[in-house]
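Pasting as-is:
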Amino acid sequence: MDEPRYVTLMSSLPYHGRLFGARQTPLSRFQLDKRLAWLEPEHADTLSRIEHVLRWRRIALGESDAGFLDRADTLVASLTIPLLAEVVRTRLEARTLIAALRKRKAGQSAPGPGERWGYGRWTNVIARHWSDTDFGVQRVFPWVLEADRRLREGDALGVDRLFMEYAWQELGRLGAGHYFDFEAVAIYVLRWDLIDRWTHYDAESARDRIVSLADASLGDYQEMYA
């Protein structure tokens, strides 16, 4: 149900526009946070925890795969709004696919039975179909073949664009019909995060970041946090 405070909040937020057409975010983070002060305290806490898991800049170098996956599981289990739980699940599953592509390109073998290496419903399918170009998940992720091609060509930015476009479209799909409620606010903020990442994208620093992550214990899995 729409609350008056959320009607006011959403009405105060400027239109995002297109992801890749943006040269800057529609408002600064400082301005966004001022508007987010209208959130109910429990909603503010929920949104903060979602961003903490999903935002690329909040990765903790040195965090283990198991540690991150435990955090993700705890978050999803705590979300009482099904739409937001699905937002987190779909994003993390796409990241798992990107991690698998990178691991395979690096010559790593398929994860072994019981190995906890990724998140979501497709980890076992991907492991079983490790030698298939599409990992057996093209029906779910139609862009997997293009991502594989770009990765093999060394086009890191192209892979990142595919991932961000998927995340952007999924947020639009999942948020359809939500305009003046907390779900709408969360979708807006997560799209803001994507624009912020894109407009601050720097290929050289991104490569340096990837190298640092690869040297840390999380390896390939956290390379594509957005």
